[in-house]
Amino acid sequence: MKKEDLLSEEFLKQFKTGEDLNGFLAQLQKRGLEAILNRELDSHLGYDKHEKSPCSNSRNGFSKKKIKTSFGESELQVPRDREASFNPMIIPKRQSMADGLENVIISLYAKGMSVSDIEEQIREVYNFEVSTSTISRITESVSNDIVAWQNRPLEPVYLIVWMDGIVFKVRESSKVINKTIYLAVGLNRDGKKEVLGMWLGKNESASFWLGVLTDLKARGVEDILITATDNLNGFTQTIKNVFPESQTQICVVHQIRNSARYVVWKDKKEFSKDMKQIYDAPTKQAAKGALEDFASKWNHKYPYAVKSWEENGEELTVFFDFPIEIRKIIYTTNLIENLNGKIRKYTKNKLSFPTDEAVLIH
């Protein structure tokens, strides 16, 4: 299939702006939970899977269990034993999940957690109700699965990759500093979206994104047709350094927010209406004309806002090369911001975190 076909209206019109990431998060949660459940059974039986059984009891396939979380409903494969004596502690029979687990399981898959950090979090979830050897078994299994997920091979081509970061305050050397969880979500050639990875770094910067992009390339990504990003200084050039053929679309929503910061309240409604004429224009040429009108009207009062639109003009209008029905999914990183919103929901009562690990844990 040619690139032109992959980006055709018929192929992409099914995707709506800001479509929820619950499906991805639910799958990642399912993956982690099933790894934990299997290790719980190993501990219950007293031997690992594929080892010779030292007793009469043994594995006996799986049963299905539905759980409801903030990411939606998931169906888990819960391992069984022949004597039916196994009662999972992480998801007890006739109950949902252990308290606090939902807040932890997703974040464990972000790069930046050591094995000891993972073990500590699992121990807290179980609340010291299981033995040290059981915790060690579970930690080993989960750690191996996390490493496998973080380094799994990726598709050679992604049609769109949305990239954004969310900032938290973290205490470091007695000081409170900002650090960022970096997120990348890709749309592959089969029309499926996937979370490509999560990374923890300091304040959002083009240099850190270089490491993220290099990681994606090392895991098999050869080409990204369109990248949707904020207008972080140097970000476009960073992308070009790793994926020189990629078209970079600066998120219009970010641009609108940044521009509106300069505007006094009484002008906001009219100013916003005039901005909309730019990104709602039917063609790139019409958008250019709308920008000229916008600049003529507002440059004397808000020169910084106008300058930002003029300087980023080319990267703000890449989406005009595509059908009207799919433009909105290209020109915004709202898809990422849905995930950020869920992370913020868990952290809204935290003014700062004591360590990097605490950010990922929450």
Overview of the molecule:
The protein is an alpha/beta fold and 362 residues long. 46% of the residues lie in helices and 20% in strands. A hairpin with a 2-residue loop joins strand 3 and strand 4 (175-188). The longest helix is centred in the first third of the chain and has 24 residues, at 22-45. It is elongated, with a radius of gyration of 24 Å. It starts with a helix and ends with a helix.
Secondary structure topology:
Elements: H1 3-6, H2 9-12, H3 22-45, E1 59-69, E2 72-81, H4 101-105, H5 115-126, H6 132-150, E3 157-172, E4 175-188, E5 193-202, H7 206-218, E6 223-229, H8 235-242, E7 247-250, H9 252-260, H10 265-279, H11 284-298, H12 303-311, H13 313-316, H14 327-330, H15 334-347, H16 356-361
Parallel strand pairs: 3-6, 6-7
Antiparallel strand pairs: 1-2, 3-4, 4-5
Helix pairs in contact: 3-6, 5-6, 7-8, 9-12, 10-11, 11-12
Task: State the main characteristics.
362 residues, alpha/beta, five-stranded mixed beta sheet, two-stranded antiparallel sheet, 7 strands, elongated, disordered C terminus
Task: Quickly count the helices.
Answer: 16
Largest sheet, spatial ordering of strands? 5-4-3-6-7
Residue fraction in strands: 15-25%
Structural class by secondary-structure content:
alpha/beta
Low-confidence runs of at least 5 consecutive residues: 346-362
User: Radius of gyration from the CA trace?
Assistant: 24 Å
Tell me, briefly, the overall form.
Answer: elongated
Strand element count: 7
H/E topology pattern: HHHEEHHHEEEHEHEHHHHHHHH
Sheet of most strands: 5 strands, mixed
> What's the multimeric state?
single chain
Question: Into which percent range does the helicity of residues fall?
Answer: 40-55%
